[in-house]
Specification:
The structure is a single chain. With about 400 residues, the chain is an alpha/beta fold. It folds into 3 domains: about 240 residues, Rossmann fold (3-Layer(aba) Sandwich), CATH 3.40.50.150; about 55 residues, no CATH class; about 80 residues. The protein is about 45% helix and about 15% strand. The chain is built from 17 helices and 11 strands. The strands form 3 sheets. The chain has a 7-stranded mixed sheet, with helices on one face. α3 runs parallel beside α4 and α6 packs across α8. The longest helix has 21 residues. It is globular, with a radius of gyration of 23 Å.
């Protein structure tokens, strides 16, 4: 795509989000509800490495912040962070600023730096970042490879990069409606010489209303997407976006390879387990597990057509992983995972909002994690305490370990 074409696409995408700021979450005069561990520096670093991050005051980039939903969470979950948020749409950026002003994130007097900027122009920002978040952005760029390379250049060594892009198979009905509305809108553009996104939403809703109830696109909309698409902003983002690149596993890993970064893993790993699809047939499961990792991912997306996106972490090597030898764990200092809910109780929510029940010994260990004692020191105070308690809590993502070099 030529530079002129890229500029044209960027301009029209900006106009879409000036008209319909996205996401359309309400602005609140308080902290946003709940948490998303992917936007917590320590939570995300713990997922990628198993341990606590040595950097306590990270520099974070929200690359394509939209209306500031992600920025707001980043600020509240990381009050000691230095946060920069960019977006191409001036209108959407104003909503982001107001959102964060209203909810008053505890950023220790560090103002969030908002900037209207294309991802292609990230070289205009000084320095690098320990954590970069880019959700729902790369697949809308005129040149996603150029975009991911621009972002990768701003990731500091040992930094982590969270990405969300669309999956082609799970969005087949969306893609068909996008093409249909594009054909119908083309008539209006030819006549009026401009794109009216509000008129496009009206047209799209009329098409859905006119189609037979047995139509597969209509059925899919009703069963999967209609709840979020009651908002015009969501409908426009889904069906009227002027630029969308949908990926399959092969093209996804080509994008990742172009970044020059290390693939850490999907941030929803339970989706990418063959057991949930083929576990009822052990022989078939074993056969599938003999495939390469990439082919296993491909098999999963072929068999589960509800996978509509990929969410994953990349890292700038070297990224030190948790040393899980007995000696290293015993000398580590444990802390509660920052994204658990319900403490102090032996039944609480884990970082993915799943219910976690603690054994009596696990509960006693968690009670003593609020000090600066090592694992070995804590275990001495717990009758029958042993390393299996600690390993179990690590698996359940109840704790993170700080290890000294």
């Amino acid at each position: 795509m030529s530079e002129l074409d890229r500029q044209a696409v960027t301009s029209i995408v900006s106009k879409l989000y000036d008209t319909f700021p996205f996401p359309p979450d309400p602005l609140l005069d308080e902290a946003p509800p709940g948490y998303n561990w992917r936007w917590s520096w320590q939570g995300a670093y713990g997922f990628c490495t198993g341990g606590l991050a040595p950097i306590k005051t990270p520099r974070i980039l929200d690359a394509g912040c939209g209306s500031g939903v992600s920025t707001e969470y980043l600020a509240h979950l990381n009050p000691d962070a230095d946060i920069v948020a960019i977006d191409i749409s001036a209108g959407t950026l104003e909503v982001a600023k107001e959102r964060c002003r209203r909810s008053s994130p505890p950023t220790n007097n560090r103002a969030i730096a908002f900037q209207q900027l294309s991802l292609y122009d990230l070289d205009q920002i000084d320095g690098q970042f320990d954590m970069i978040n880019s959700v729902g952005v790369l697949h809308h760029l005129p040149d996603p490879i150029k975009g991911i390379q621009a972002i990768a250049s701003k990731l500091a060594p040992s930094g982590i990069f969270h990405i969300f892009v669309y999956a082609k198979i799970g969005r087949w009905e969306i893609n068909l409606m996008q093409q249909a509305l594009s054909l119908l809108q083309k008539q209006e553009i030819d006549q009026n010489q401009k794109i009216d996104f509000r008129q496009g939403v009206k047209l799209g809703r009329e098409v859905f209303a006119a189609l037979p109830s047995t139509n597969r696109i209509v059925q899919r909309e009703k069963t999967r997407w209609s709840m979020e698409n009651t908002r015009d902003e969501c409908f426009a983002d889904m069906y009227l976006h002027p630029r969308e690149v949908d990926y399959e596993i092969e093209s996804l890993f080509e994008l990742i390879a172009a970044s020059g970064l290390e693939f850490i893993g999907f941030s929803n790993p339970q989706v990418w387990q063959l057991e949930r699809l083929l576990g009822s047939n052990p022989e078939l499961l074993t056969q599938a597990q003999s495939l390469s990792t990439i082919d296993q991912y491909r098999l999963i997306e072929l068999l589960d057509t509800d996978i509509a996106h990929y969410e994953f972490f990349l890292a700038h090597p070297p990224l030190a992983k948790l040393d899980q030898t007995d000696a290293k764990i015993l000398s580590s200092i444990p802390q509660h995972h920052p994204c658990i809910n319900g403490w102090e109780s032996d039944c609480l929510f884990d970082p993915d909002y799943g219910i976690c029940r603690l054994s009596e010994l696990e509960f006693k260990f968690m009670q003593q994690c609020l000090s600066s004692q090592t694992v070995a020191e804590i275990l001495k105070n717990i009758p029958n305490g042993n390393l299996e308690i600690v390993r179990s809590l690590l698996t359940k993502r109840m704790i993170l370990l700080e290890q000294k070099p």
